[in-house]
Amino acid sequence: MSDFEHSSGERDARRTTPGRPWTPAEEQRKDALRRYLGAVAAVASARSAEESERALGGERSEPPVTVSPGPPVQEPTVLRVRDVMRVPAVSVPGDMPFLDVAHTLAREQVSAVPVVDADDHVIGVVSESDLLAKAAVMAEPHRHGPVGRLRRHRLYEKSHGDTAATLMTFPPVTVHPAERVADAAWTAAHARLKRLPVTDYRGRLVGVVSRRDLLRALIRDDADIRAEVESLVGRYVPDPRAVEVTVENGAVTIKGRLDKAVVPELLASVREIDDVIDVVDDVEAV
Protein backbone atom coordinates (compact mmCIF):
# COMPACT_ATOMS: atom_id res chain seq x y z
CA MET A 1 0.00 0.00 0.00
CA SER A 2 1.44 3.40 -0.99
CA ASP A 3 2.10 6.19 1.53
CA PHE A 4 -0.78 8.14 0.00
CA GLU A 5 -3.21 5.22 0.39
CA HIS A 6 -1.93 4.65 3.94
CA SER A 7 -2.48 8.26 5.01
CA SER A 8 -5.84 8.37 3.24
CA GLY A 9 -6.89 5.21 5.05
CA GLU A 10 -5.87 6.69 8.37
CA ARG A 11 -7.93 9.82 7.70
CA ASP A 12 -10.95 7.70 6.80
CA ALA A 13 -10.49 5.64 9.94
CA ARG A 14 -10.35 8.75 12.10
CA ARG A 15 -13.52 10.08 10.50
CA THR A 16 -15.37 6.82 11.13
CA THR A 17 -14.02 6.20 14.64
CA PRO A 18 -16.66 6.96 17.29
CA GLY A 19 -15.95 9.92 19.55
CA ARG A 20 -16.52 7.79 22.62
CA PRO A 21 -14.59 4.73 23.90
CA TRP A 22 -15.63 1.30 22.63
CA THR A 23 -18.02 -0.38 25.04
CA PRO A 24 -17.38 -3.98 26.18
CA ALA A 25 -20.30 -5.14 24.02
CA GLU A 26 -18.63 -3.63 20.96
CA GLU A 27 -15.19 -5.20 21.49
CA GLN A 28 -15.98 -8.22 19.29
CA ARG A 29 -17.19 -5.94 16.50
CA LYS A 30 -14.06 -3.80 16.89
CA ASP A 31 -11.80 -6.83 16.56
CA ALA A 32 -13.68 -8.15 13.53
CA LEU A 33 -13.44 -4.75 11.86
CA ARG A 34 -9.70 -4.59 12.49
CA ARG A 35 -9.15 -8.04 11.01
CA TYR A 36 -11.38 -7.21 8.03
CA LEU A 37 -9.41 -4.06 7.27
CA GLY A 38 -6.20 -6.05 7.62
CA ALA A 39 -7.40 -8.47 4.96
CA VAL A 40 -8.31 -5.58 2.65
CA ALA A 41 -4.92 -3.96 3.24
CA ALA A 42 -3.18 -7.22 2.31
CA VAL A 43 -5.02 -7.28 -1.01
CA ALA A 44 -4.09 -3.65 -1.66
CA SER A 45 -0.43 -4.35 -0.83
CA ALA A 46 -0.31 -7.31 -3.22
CA ARG A 47 -1.86 -5.22 -5.99
CA SER A 48 0.62 -2.42 -5.40
CA ALA A 49 3.54 -4.87 -5.61
CA GLU A 50 2.26 -6.30 -8.88
CA GLU A 51 1.81 -2.83 -10.38
CA SER A 52 5.33 -1.80 -9.31
CA GLU A 53 6.83 -4.90 -10.88
CA ARG A 54 5.02 -4.24 -14.16
CA ALA A 55 6.13 -0.61 -14.14
CA LEU A 56 9.78 -1.48 -13.55
CA GLY A 57 10.29 -4.26 -16.02
CA GLY A 58 7.00 -5.50 -17.37
CA GLU A 59 6.69 -9.21 -17.80
CA ARG A 60 10.03 -10.97 -17.41
CA SER A 61 10.81 -14.10 -19.29
CA GLU A 62 12.07 -16.89 -17.08
CA PRO A 63 14.26 -19.75 -18.28
CA PRO A 64 12.43 -23.03 -18.74
CA VAL A 65 12.47 -25.22 -15.67
CA THR A 66 12.40 -28.97 -15.87
CA VAL A 67 10.10 -30.41 -13.25
CA SER A 68 10.42 -34.02 -12.29
CA PRO A 69 7.17 -35.94 -12.30
CA GLY A 70 5.55 -36.27 -8.92
CA PRO A 71 2.22 -36.27 -7.16
CA PRO A 72 -0.08 -33.36 -8.14
CA VAL A 73 0.00 -30.40 -5.79
CA GLN A 74 -3.43 -29.35 -4.55
CA GLU A 75 -4.00 -25.64 -5.11
CA PRO A 76 -5.36 -23.66 -2.15
CA THR A 77 -9.09 -23.04 -2.29
CA VAL A 78 -9.94 -19.53 -3.45
CA LEU A 79 -13.33 -18.27 -2.38
CA ARG A 80 -15.34 -16.59 -5.10
CA VAL A 81 -18.28 -14.22 -4.85
CA ARG A 82 -20.59 -16.98 -6.09
CA ASP A 83 -19.69 -18.98 -2.96
CA VAL A 84 -20.99 -16.32 -0.57
CA MET A 85 -23.58 -14.26 -2.47
CA ARG A 86 -27.29 -14.34 -1.62
CA VAL A 87 -29.87 -15.49 -4.14
CA PRO A 88 -32.41 -14.52 -5.16
CA ALA A 89 -31.59 -10.84 -4.88
CA VAL A 90 -34.27 -8.31 -4.02
CA SER A 91 -34.58 -5.64 -6.71
CA VAL A 92 -37.00 -2.95 -7.84
CA PRO A 93 -37.98 -1.84 -11.35
CA GLY A 94 -37.00 1.61 -12.49
CA ASP A 95 -40.61 2.81 -12.63
CA MET A 96 -41.47 1.85 -9.04
CA PRO A 97 -42.85 4.89 -7.16
CA PHE A 98 -40.94 6.45 -4.27
CA LEU A 99 -43.26 5.21 -1.52
CA ASP A 100 -43.21 1.64 -2.84
CA VAL A 101 -39.40 1.69 -2.85
CA ALA A 102 -39.41 2.87 0.75
CA HIS A 103 -41.83 0.11 1.71
CA THR A 104 -39.62 -2.47 -0.05
CA LEU A 105 -36.55 -1.41 1.93
CA ALA A 106 -38.52 -1.61 5.17
CA ARG A 107 -40.10 -4.97 4.35
CA GLU A 108 -36.83 -6.60 3.29
CA GLN A 109 -34.89 -4.93 6.13
CA VAL A 110 -32.11 -3.74 3.81
CA SER A 111 -30.56 -0.31 3.33
CA ALA A 112 -30.35 -0.45 -0.47
CA VAL A 113 -31.64 -2.43 -3.45
CA PRO A 114 -30.54 -2.70 -7.09
CA VAL A 115 -32.69 -1.00 -9.70
CA VAL A 116 -33.20 -3.09 -12.83
CA ASP A 117 -34.66 -2.52 -16.29
CA ALA A 118 -37.11 -4.76 -18.16
CA ASP A 119 -34.31 -7.23 -19.02
CA ASP A 120 -33.05 -7.42 -15.43
CA HIS A 121 -29.92 -5.34 -16.16
CA VAL A 122 -28.72 -3.40 -13.12
CA ILE A 123 -28.98 0.30 -13.95
CA GLY A 124 -28.39 1.74 -10.49
CA VAL A 125 -28.89 1.33 -6.75
CA VAL A 126 -31.46 3.14 -4.65
CA SER A 127 -30.68 3.49 -0.97
CA GLU A 128 -32.11 5.01 2.18
CA SER A 129 -29.84 8.01 1.60
CA ASP A 130 -31.37 8.57 -1.83
CA LEU A 131 -34.89 8.41 -0.42
CA LEU A 132 -34.01 10.59 2.57
CA ALA A 133 -33.41 13.67 0.41
CA LYS A 134 -36.88 13.48 -1.10
CA ALA A 135 -38.49 12.75 2.26
CA ALA A 136 -36.74 15.75 3.82
CA VAL A 137 -37.96 18.16 1.15
CA MET A 138 -41.48 16.71 1.35
CA ALA A 139 -41.46 17.32 5.11
CA GLU A 140 -39.99 20.83 4.93
CA PRO A 141 -40.23 22.33 1.43
CA HIS A 142 -39.19 25.87 2.41
CA ARG A 143 -35.95 26.84 4.13
CA HIS A 144 -34.61 30.35 4.62
CA GLY A 145 -31.19 31.96 4.78
CA PRO A 146 -27.96 31.13 2.89
CA VAL A 147 -27.51 27.73 4.54
CA GLY A 148 -31.15 26.88 3.96
CA ARG A 149 -30.91 27.79 0.29
CA LEU A 150 -27.77 25.69 -0.15
CA ARG A 151 -29.32 22.69 1.56
CA ARG A 152 -32.56 23.14 -0.37
CA HIS A 153 -30.67 23.19 -3.66
CA ARG A 154 -28.85 19.96 -2.83
CA LEU A 155 -31.97 18.26 -1.58
CA TYR A 156 -33.98 19.30 -4.60
CA GLU A 157 -31.45 17.60 -6.86
CA LYS A 158 -32.60 14.32 -5.35
CA SER A 159 -36.20 15.22 -4.66
CA HIS A 160 -37.20 16.00 -8.23
CA GLY A 161 -37.68 12.31 -8.99
CA ASP A 162 -40.66 10.21 -8.07
CA THR A 163 -39.47 6.75 -9.15
CA ALA A 164 -36.58 4.44 -8.39
CA ALA A 165 -34.86 5.30 -11.68
CA THR A 166 -34.95 9.05 -11.00
CA LEU A 167 -33.87 8.75 -7.36
CA MET A 168 -31.19 6.06 -7.68
CA THR A 169 -27.41 6.46 -7.59
CA PHE A 170 -25.68 5.50 -10.83
CA PRO A 171 -23.60 4.08 -12.38
CA PRO A 172 -23.86 1.09 -10.04
CA VAL A 173 -20.82 -0.56 -8.46
CA THR A 174 -21.15 -4.30 -9.13
CA VAL A 175 -19.08 -7.47 -8.86
CA HIS A 176 -18.98 -10.67 -10.92
CA PRO A 177 -19.76 -14.13 -9.49
CA ALA A 178 -16.28 -15.40 -10.45
CA GLU A 179 -14.50 -12.51 -8.73
CA ARG A 180 -12.40 -13.32 -5.70
CA VAL A 181 -13.98 -12.55 -2.34
CA ALA A 182 -10.86 -10.59 -1.36
CA ASP A 183 -11.22 -8.35 -4.44
CA ALA A 184 -14.93 -7.83 -3.78
CA ALA A 185 -14.08 -6.86 -0.19
CA TRP A 186 -11.64 -4.28 -1.52
CA THR A 187 -14.34 -2.89 -3.83
CA ALA A 188 -16.87 -2.64 -1.00
CA ALA A 189 -14.38 -0.97 1.35
CA HIS A 190 -13.13 1.49 -1.29
CA ALA A 191 -16.65 2.50 -2.36
CA ARG A 192 -17.98 2.44 1.24
CA LEU A 193 -20.90 0.28 0.22
CA LYS A 194 -22.80 -2.11 2.49
CA ARG A 195 -24.21 -4.22 -0.35
CA LEU A 196 -22.95 -5.00 -3.85
CA PRO A 197 -25.14 -6.29 -6.70
CA VAL A 198 -23.69 -9.37 -8.40
CA THR A 199 -24.13 -9.39 -12.17
CA ASP A 200 -23.31 -11.76 -15.00
CA TYR A 201 -21.19 -10.82 -17.99
CA ARG A 202 -24.21 -9.12 -19.58
CA GLY A 203 -24.87 -6.95 -16.54
CA ARG A 204 -27.96 -8.88 -15.42
CA LEU A 205 -28.65 -9.28 -11.71
CA VAL A 206 -27.85 -12.75 -10.35
CA GLY A 207 -27.41 -12.07 -6.63
CA VAL A 208 -26.22 -9.67 -3.97
CA VAL A 209 -23.33 -9.78 -1.51
CA SER A 210 -23.07 -7.74 1.68
CA ARG A 211 -20.07 -6.59 3.68
CA ARG A 212 -21.07 -9.05 6.39
CA ASP A 213 -21.01 -11.92 3.87
CA LEU A 214 -17.53 -10.89 2.72
CA LEU A 215 -16.30 -10.49 6.28
CA ARG A 216 -17.46 -13.95 7.31
CA ALA A 217 -15.76 -15.45 4.25
CA LEU A 218 -12.46 -13.68 4.87
CA ILE A 219 -12.24 -14.38 8.58
CA ARG A 220 -12.62 -17.86 9.99
CA ASP A 221 -13.98 -18.27 13.48
CA ASP A 222 -11.82 -19.37 16.39
CA ALA A 223 -13.11 -22.96 16.27
CA ASP A 224 -11.85 -23.43 12.70
CA ILE A 225 -8.46 -21.96 13.56
CA ARG A 226 -8.15 -24.19 16.61
CA ALA A 227 -8.93 -27.30 14.54
CA GLU A 228 -6.15 -26.44 12.07
CA VAL A 229 -3.66 -25.71 14.87
CA GLU A 230 -4.45 -29.02 16.58
CA SER A 231 -3.98 -30.84 13.29
CA LEU A 232 -0.61 -29.12 12.88
CA VAL A 233 0.45 -30.04 16.43
CA GLY A 234 -0.19 -33.69 15.58
CA ARG A 235 2.63 -33.56 13.04
CA TYR A 236 5.16 -32.52 15.67
CA VAL A 237 3.97 -34.30 18.81
CA PRO A 238 3.45 -38.08 19.21
CA ASP A 239 0.55 -37.48 21.60
CA PRO A 240 -1.35 -34.28 20.68
CA ARG A 241 -3.39 -34.62 23.89
CA ALA A 242 -0.32 -33.46 25.77
CA VAL A 243 -0.73 -30.01 24.21
CA GLU A 244 -3.58 -27.64 25.03
CA VAL A 245 -4.60 -25.21 22.27
CA THR A 246 -6.92 -22.27 22.89
CA VAL A 247 -7.92 -19.54 20.43
CA GLU A 248 -9.53 -16.22 21.29
CA ASN A 249 -10.23 -13.63 18.60
CA GLY A 250 -7.52 -15.08 16.37
CA ALA A 251 -4.86 -15.23 19.13
CA VAL A 252 -3.54 -18.77 19.66
CA THR A 253 -2.18 -19.96 23.00
CA ILE A 254 -0.19 -23.20 23.11
CA LYS A 255 0.37 -24.82 26.49
CA GLY A 256 2.05 -28.09 27.49
CA ARG A 257 5.34 -29.97 27.78
CA LEU A 258 7.15 -30.29 24.46
CA ASP A 259 10.51 -31.36 23.15
CA LYS A 260 12.57 -28.18 22.95
CA ALA A 261 13.85 -29.25 19.54
CA VAL A 262 10.40 -28.91 17.91
CA VAL A 263 9.07 -25.84 19.73
CA PRO A 264 10.56 -23.10 17.47
CA GLU A 265 9.44 -24.78 14.24
CA LEU A 266 5.97 -25.52 15.63
CA LEU A 267 5.38 -21.95 16.76
CA ALA A 268 6.63 -20.61 13.42
CA SER A 269 4.23 -22.90 11.56
CA VAL A 270 1.30 -21.79 13.70
CA ARG A 271 2.09 -18.15 12.96
CA GLU A 272 1.85 -18.92 9.22
CA ILE A 273 -1.77 -20.11 9.51
CA ASP A 274 -4.25 -17.76 7.88
CA ASP A 275 -6.16 -15.49 10.28
CA VAL A 276 -3.82 -16.17 13.21
CA ILE A 277 -3.03 -12.69 14.54
CA ASP A 278 -0.86 -13.69 17.51
CA VAL A 279 0.76 -16.76 19.11
CA VAL A 280 1.22 -16.97 22.88
CA ASP A 281 4.04 -19.35 23.85
CA ASP A 282 3.08 -21.03 27.13
CA VAL A 283 5.13 -24.15 26.39
CA GLU A 284 7.44 -25.87 28.86
CA ALA A 285 10.38 -27.02 26.75
CA VAL A 286 12.02 -30.24 27.98
From TrEMBL:
Family matches, as InterPro entries: CBS_dom, CBS_dom_sf, Diverse_CBS-Domain
Keyword Protein transport applies: no
Keyword Protease attributed: no
Keywords tagged on the record: CBS domain
Top-level taxon of the source organism: Bacteria
Comp. bias (Basic and acidic residues): 1-15, 48-62
Region spans: Disordered: 1-30, 45-74
PROSITE patterns referenced in this protein's UniProt entry, alphabetically: CBS
CBS domain ranges (all copies): 85-147, 168-225
Name assigned to this protein: CBS domain-containing protein
